[in-house]
Amino acid sequence: MITLKGEHIYLRALEPEDLEFIHTIENDESVWEISNTITPYSKFLIKQYLEQSHKDIFEVKQLRLVISSYNEEALGMIDLFDFDFKNSRAGVGILVKDVKNRAKGVGSEALKLLVNYSFSHLGLHQLYCNVSEENDISIKLFTKQGFQNIGLKKDWNLVNGSYKNEYIFQLINN
Fold first, then answer.
1. Which domains does the chain show, CATH number per domain?
2. Backbone torsion region of residue 69, taken as left when φ is above 0, otherwise alpha when ψ lies between -120 and 50, otherwise beta
3. Residue 160 and which of 15, 34, 39, 64 are 20 to 30 A apart at CA?
4. Would the CA dihedral through 172, 91, 129, 143 be positive or negative?
């Protein structure tokens, strides 16, 4: 059975009511390094994005879901991006918004749900993610879900005037 519901959280589609939540995340400079963001997003642009979020992953090559608690609190977002139907793969990105909700299994449960959905429902063969060499929490998260470190991209991202290395992790559905 395909489900996006876990024991403590569930993954849901974006709703118009998520405007403030997404605006806060997208304009949080402390996470711009993770998302390769370099400029703030206006509410107008995010509203336009939300209006298009109903489109199929096969059309827009992306699927963004909200990580939600069962008391309807939006905890974060998890994405499939660079969806490649021909080669049956996609990139994965995840962010748990508040530090108080991190290291409590929220990200792990969300990633597990998305991996299962990607392989069983979307029929993907592989998932990958890019993680800064310094991001020990994400390295642990993806490794715990079976992703393997397959390489290091040297001087990959320019952050605050310094180049940082980035790992690429991959999970193949066998």
1. 9-172 (3.40.630.30)
2. beta
3. 64
4. negative
Assess contact for 141 and 94: CB atoms under 8 A.
Answer: yes
- What pTM does this model have? 0.86
The pairs formed by 112-118 with CB atoms below 8 angstroms and a separation of 24 or more are 112/6, 112/145, 113/3, 113/4, 113/5, 113/6, 113/9, 113/10, 113/11, 114/4, 114/11, 114/65, 114/78, 114/80, 115/145, 115/146, 115/171, 116/2, 117/2, 117/4, 117/11, 118/80, 118/90
Residues 27, 40 contacting (CB under 8 angstroms): yes
Nearest to 104 by CA among 139, 75, 143, 133: 75
Q: What is the pLDDT of residues 71-98, one digit of tens each?
A: 888 999 999 999 999 999 999 999 888 7
Determine the Cα–Cα distance for residues 97 and 75; give it in Å rounded to an integer: 6
Phi, then psi, of 25 in degrees rounded to 5: -65, -50
State whether residue 127 is helix, strand or coil. strand
Quote the CA–CA distance of 125 and 30 in Å, as a whole number: 33
Q: What are phi and psi of 147, to 5 degrees?
A: -70, 140
Q: Residues 4-14: pLDDT tens digits?
A: 999 999 999 88
**Which residues are 165's β-sheet partners?**
none
Token representation of residue 13:
């589609």
